[in-house]
Amino acid sequence: MGYNITQKILASHLVSGSLEPGKEIAIRIDQTLTQDATGTMAYLQFEAMNVPRVKTELSVSYVDHNTLQTGFENADDHRFLQGMAAKYGVYFSRPGNGICHQVHLERFGVPGKTLLGSDSHTPTAGGLGMLAIGAGGLDVAVAMAGGPFYMAMPKVVNVRLHGRLAPWASAKDVVLEVLRRLTVKGGVGKVLEYGGEGVKSLTVPERATIANMGAETGATTSIFPSDEVTRAFLRAQGREEVWVELLADPDASYDEVLDIDLSSLEPLVACPHSPDNVKPVHEVGPVAVDQVVIGSCTNSSYLDLMRVAAILKGKVVHPRVSLVIAPGSRQVLTMLAQNGALADLVAAGARILECACGPCIGMGQAPPSGGVSVRTNNRNFKGRSGTADAQVYLVSPETAAATALTGYLTDPRELGDPLVVEMPEKFYIDDRMILPPAEDPTSVEVVRGPNIKPLPPAKPLPASIQGRVLIKVGDNITTDHIMPAGAKVLPLRSNIPAMAEYVFAGVDPSFARRAKEAGGGIIVGGENYGQGSSREHAALAPMYLGIKAVLAKSFARIHRDNLINFGILPLTFVEPADYERIEQDDVLEISNIPEALRGGLELEIKNISRNFTFKARAQMTPREVEILLVGGLLNYVSTQQRK
Amino acid sequence: MGYNITQKILASHLVSGSLEPGKEIAIRIDQTLTQDATGTMAYLQFEAMNVPRVKTELSVSYVDHNTLQTGFENADDHRFLQGMAAKYGVYFSRPGNGICHQVHLERFGVPGKTLLGSDSHTPTAGGLGMLAIGAGGLDVAVAMAGGPFYMAMPKVVNVRLHGRLAPWASAKDVVLEVLRRLTVKGGVGKVLEYGGEGVKSLTVPERATIANMGAETGATTSIFPSDEVTRAFLRAQGREEVWVELLADPDASYDEVLDIDLSSLEPLVACPHSPDNVKPVHEVGPVAVDQVVIGSCTNSSYLDLMRVAAILKGKVVHPRVSLVIAPGSRQVLTMLAQNGALADLVAAGARILECACGPCIGMGQAPPSGGVSVRTNNRNFKGRSGTADAQVYLVSPETAAATALTGYLTDPRELGDPLVVEMPEKFYIDDRMILPPAEDPTSVEVVRGPNIKPLPPAKPLPASIQGRVLIKVGDNITTDHIMPAGAKVLPLRSNIPAMAEYVFAGVDPSFARRAKEAGGGIIVGGENYGQGSSREHAALAPMYLGIKAVLAKSFARIHRDNLINFGILPLTFVEPADYERIEQDDVLEISNIPEALRGGLELEIKNISRNFTFKARAQMTPREVEILLVGGLLNYVSTQQRK
Q1: Which of A352, A489, B154, B309 is the most exposed place for a label (fewest CB within 10 A)?
Q2: Is the Cβ–Cβ distance between B365 and B354 less than 8 Å?
Q3: Active site residue B475
């Protein structure tokens, strides 16, 4: 029987295991990417492995998160990253060059290759036919050191696209429809592989939008075929030579199928406060809007912004609306500046921000108190915008532009005649803001600012844990809840002791203090614990505070992996009802941990405060068990190196 | 005998007093401007005066300082300002429309008129032949309410320009030369009135650069003639009808004369950490540079950025240098986007920031630790960049651009052939981002966010003060020292209790706590205390902390006025040597204050801790004495209104 695209790439990169869903596989990683918010830590970890030069085909270090630079910390990180890249054989995309996923798509992505990135939206490159997976920085560091990436073999869902998009419906609406159907946990343990005759009507940037926001379903990744559309895109990027055709075999099989009729899609919106709270724009009605934000790795391509410029040209934003636009890359910005579209945007009243993530990660442009913000971003978790009581709606660039003009959430079909925006024959190609690694690594001095602190060491997991439940949270807790980002906290990413003060700060500001007073403890969570961003700080900072175990109904993939990587035991309830029987401040005891983990992976937990016992499960591979027992992946790698 | 330009404008606006240097005069104010960092407080003060509509010819409210929006506070302020403007008859320049001084020059400035602005760089409009003065927000509020502006009649210095600038020397170098000669306190109590045949070789934006940074000498303002060059500028802005000729009479007299030979000026640089630490660029030598910032109200005009674009075109920034460019206005940015210059800047690796003050006021782009930043800004006070140990150099746009390319502080004459950049015949004119006031004020709802706190009330000055010296500081203490700005503190501008926690934070972080514990006290300063920014928060927040008097060797004008406006007694040592005899924590007693102030203005102060007495002087007009005694200008205005 034939292979689907996912299986083809996995098979050609398989280091160990077999392609049976749920079984552990290890794959060779061709390319890695990091961004600055996760990168500093990732390179500190890489450095700790004592490997003189990255062993991947290509590794790129991007700066796109911390570009406001409200203190010395960010510029220090940028300088450190630039030095590390030069020294260890990594390409360095300078601040202002753009958002990692947009630039990687433009300049580096290769169909059929594997990409591991320390950012949850790494699957964006799936738009080019790459198998692109988001992971914690430590996993990426291991990959740079030549190690394989381990994961449970995902199920492959065939998302079959039929027909073509109606005028004013867009790629964003396709992925919002996927989210509406799958929810934010419907993709866990799965790859969303797109197919069907509708694919060929979508350009690579549109495919990238869809692959990008597949991350919000919890999917391992999303992937599109590499076809003539892909070839044309690579040709326009001056990289046709890297193109290979990559299609599913005609007799390929899939674990699941999802059919989407493109022609029936209408403009959709994800309402506050979850990307899966999706409704048709016209059903939500004319919500009064204070801010419109166009940008982010989901929707900041040349095509996206040309459409926005065409809508705004000659008009002006509504007096109530602050419209901000952050182009995805220097390539995009230069082209808009060359062809006059940028002048149209500025004339229409848009505030142009640097080519970076910006408002999407709460780095600036926080809406007013209780404000309504309509954004082309991928996440609308409460508070992520920087304003705790803001209402954030996620839409397509077309809907955003229409809304900016009227001041109310607006179905872009009200604008009338459809837009005609063509893909360029040739993009503006200029890689001078991407610095190649130094030819002589010994010539490179890596400068470390005072905020760049050594990695805190992880201790081996004890044989038994007795600890207090420091917090009990509900379902769909995001890594933004666990380890907030935003303008105040993101600059501390390379300083775990300082960062740890903010763990759960938005949920319970006393958490860090209580954790330190108790000398650590246990976290109890609901379903899909740790969804959202890939940030390993959501494991690393709790580790620093002495958290030994997280007990939840279920976990998001990357966060579960991060917990193991940093030596925190991720456990799920055998009986979800037991969740109700535990309260904050209960003292739990978990005994005989090594035996249980190396045995049936079922552990008995005693609730000492309430005097009952219940069962929990550790869904881990034998390799993961050993990682956990030695105190995390970095310790494990050192052990392996010494063997 | 004939009048100079300053005298002509003052005479035509005189409400009381006579034009004798040092004597108090009151003048009618035609126009006012505010920006968002000082504006929220100014409009709260205006509101407290119960005047239904501003009484000026024109008042404009700009948003240019707090545009990063790292929390809800900024957007709340913007919304409040927009509402207040609509309600009270003020034009509102929306966020993204540009820096107040640049936009005012382009769209509103009128030769021969008076302008009072709650920003110390208000003199920029002197480039157009306006008498434009920076003041505290409360003074501006009084002017909006129709009150005159009081000041001591300044001396008028005739700055005579001879010859014309050599290639690669620029307007910035002219004002750096003025600073080199006058120092940061040499302009106190003076107006710098430019004349001489060299004036006609300078465009209005160049004159504006010179007038702008005259603020750094401590001058009341700087002013240029209104001539055919002015007329051409206004014509290009579509406003020729407001032009009037305004020249000094041939037989005008001046209090002082300063001659500058333009043709002998070479590229200059103000070295860390003062704008008057000026040397020729080539003498300072090739300092390695980490960052270049081009922008600020001093150097972000169309002409400035076209020159930068011409220098950078086809080249790329040095790998060590982060180059950021913040265009001065939406007019400038649109024109650069229309004519391709912006594409050249982006292609060369420039990071384009929003049209706003940005890095100049420490709102983002803080350099790395110990980093060297070369900027076209007007101030390089230690720490103002956001990085305490950064070294900031102030230069012309040409020097900045040359430096960005080489990575070392570079004399632009090394670039070779001179630039030819012409003033446009016609600027891009589009005022759609400037909202006129509402026709029906009752229709306007003013929304106040939770960070917008009522103004703290000021108490009448007691008859005697006994207080501890809470801090003793040296010469040239800036309002940045007293009340820091930057990304952390600026958003608190409308919340005095929160802001007061940061008074002297960079000098002595315990100050606010100690002041509160002691229930207030006294500050001792050296020469030129309170130079720099006009921020009245440097008086308002100390007032909130209970500061009753500041005893210094001398004061900067705006800060002294602000102290009086908020009921804090500004005293100078009769014998400067007495400064040495006082230490922090000494307890001082000042008795019979009303009698002394209404009498000879000399006060006896007892140092109780060291048991000696000394004399201090209160240089105040009778009106200022009354303002002080009732607890500040707002109380005084209420008293007057009740009469």
Answers
A1: A489
A2: no
A3: no
